[in-house]
């Protein structure tokens, strides 16, 4: 995962095998702020774009019309999902959040 610029906009580029996903770079700050306000653990809930996201999860927030960008943080049509899978580990590595590491139902909260 790395930062890049596309069409004058800062993006996160996430490469998984041959698949390349793009997310709006501001998702890091926006998600961190939301988690501060939330104040507790929140389930990640990863899902592909074509599948519905479980309500109350990071994935659902990452595509909600009520988040700061008013919709998807994923930028490549057809590959906009999996926000709850790829963004939280990066935020953990950056020291912004704590993550659980269970076989299923992982959660995160702000440090």
What does this structure look like?
- There is one protein chain.
- With 111 residues, the chain is an alpha+beta fold.
- It has one domain (2-110).
- Helix content is 24%, strand content 25%.
- The protein is built from 3 helices and 6 strands; from the N terminus they run βββαβααββ.
- The strands form 2 sheets. A 3-stranded antiparallel β-sheet has the order 1-2-3, with no helix packed on it. It has a 3-stranded antiparallel β-sheet with strand order 4-6-5.
- A hairpin with a 7-residue loop joins β5 and β6.
- The longest helix is centred in the first third of the chain and has 12 residues, at 27-38.
- The protein starts with a strand and ends with a strand.
User: What is the general shape?
Assistant: globular
Helix percentage range: 10-25%
Q: Sheet with the most strands?
A: 3 strands, antiparallel
Which regions have little confidence, pLDDT < 50, spanning 5+ residues?
Answer: none
Query: What's the structural domain tally?
Result: 1
Average predicted confidence as pLDDT: 97
What order do the SSEs take from the amino end to the carboxyl end, as H and E?
EEEHEHHEE
Strand order, biggest sheet? 1-2-3
Q: Count up the helices.
A: 3
């Amino acid at each position: 995962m790395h930062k890049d610029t596309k069409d004058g906009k800062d993006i996160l580029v996430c490469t998984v095998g041959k698949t390349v996903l793009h997310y709006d770079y501001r998702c890091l700050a926006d998600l961190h702020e939301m988690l501060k306000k939330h104040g507790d653990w929140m389930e990640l809930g990863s899902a592909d774009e074509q599948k519905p996201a479980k309500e109350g999860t990071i994935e659902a927030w990452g595509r909600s019309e009520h988040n700061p960008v008013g919709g998807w943080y994923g930028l490549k049509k057809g590959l906009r999902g999996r926000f709850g899978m790829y963004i939280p580990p990066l935020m953990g590595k950056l020291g912004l959040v704590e993550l659980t590491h269970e076989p299923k139902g992982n959660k995160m909260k702000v440090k």
